[in-house]
Specification:
mainly alpha; about 80% helix
């Protein structure tokens, strides 16, 4: 049962964090400053997606706990 939960969690994380594989859009930055700004934007975007995923996972954990409580009562 624990292996199934872990597998599901890994699947959600993989889906939530999967990107298009490109770190740069359009044309490549020409200066080191532009490269750093592009990396910073990519990192910020990744952190925002991770935070949103973490919130969804926490909500799922709460729902699973609630389901466990309700199934023990019946």
């Amino acid at each position: 049962m624990k292996a199934l939960k872990t597998g599901i969690l890994v699947a959600f994380v993989s889906l939530g964090l999967a990107g298009d594989g490109s770190s740069q859009g359009g044309g490549a930055p020409k200066t080191p400053v532009q490269e750093l700004e592009a990396l910073k934007a990519d990192n910020t975007s990744l952190l925002e997606r991770q935070a949103a995923l973490l919130l969804r996972l926490e909500e799922m954990r709460k729902q699973a706990t609630q389901i466990r409580i309700l199934t023990k009562r019946s």
